[in-house]
Amino acid sequence: MSKLIWDAVGDRFYETGVSKGVLFVMKSDGTYDTGVAWNGLTAVNQSPTGGESNYQYADNIKYLNLRSREEFAGTIEAFTYPDEFAECDGSKALVTGVLAGQQNRKTFGFAYRTEIGNDVDGDSHGYKIHLVYGATVSPSEKAYSTINDSPEAINFSWEFETTPVEIETLIDGKKLRPVAHLEIDSRDFATGAAKTALEAFEEKLYGRDAVTGDNPVTALEPTLPLPDTVITDLTVSG
């Protein structure tokens, strides 16, 4: 093993930004509806809970440390939200243009992207795609104030919690715990077949327009792939 080097050129990484938000409302059969763009997304704050220590004692010593199950939760902030999110936020249309609050809240999934930068490429070094499953939001405060000489747009905020989904695929011969959050790092799919696999996956996630002509391409609707599908789509042999 060679000597450690800190902060070498090209290795000064950081993460920034949030963009390409997509909302997937859960249908009654437990699958997710076609994705819709979430415009005006300003922040997604991840706040996992659980994972707490539970010390076990025996023979007058600390015998072992059992940790509680970790839960994925956080906060979504945005200037606006898709119409489809209304039912996730406890509203139901009575007639077109009229919403009633205090209704049942729908479960949803969502996706967003964060940027990976370094000292050479700046913010364009890479990115991560985040997939969140089984989310529900709590009622949130909406503070409206008068327009004045320093106007500001309302930044809506929703706290969310999740119910994880199963991973049936064995990883290293073992079954993993259910998961509510996946991260896909583009740096691991930068070239060759891996890059092609990620491009195809993003077309599945974000959708694709139809193309006519000599090389026709069929349209794809935006869908939220479940973890086992993500594994299949992004496993590159060789």
Short structural summary:
With 238 residues, this protein is mainly beta. The protein has two helices and twelve strands. Strands 1, 2, 3, 6, 9, 10, 11 and 12 form an eight-stranded antiparallel beta sheet that branches. The protein has a two-stranded antiparallel ribbon with strand order 4-5.
General description of the model:
There is one protein chain. The chain has 238 residues and is mainly beta. The protein has one domain. Helix content is 10%, strand content 36%. The protein is built from two helices and twelve strands, in the order ββββββββββββαα. The strands form three sheets. Strands 1, 2, 3, 6, 9, 10, 11 and 12 form an eight-stranded antiparallel beta sheet that branches. Strands 4-5 form a two-stranded antiparallel sheet.
Layout of helices and strands:
Blueprint: E1 14-25, E2 36-38, E3 41-46, E4 53-58, E5 61-67, E6 73-78, E7 92-95, E8 98-100, E9 108-118, E10 122-137, E11 156-162, E12 181-185, H1 192-206, H2 227-234
Antiparallel strand pairs: 1-2, 1-9, 3-6, 4-5, 6-11, 7-8, 9-10, 10-11, 10-12
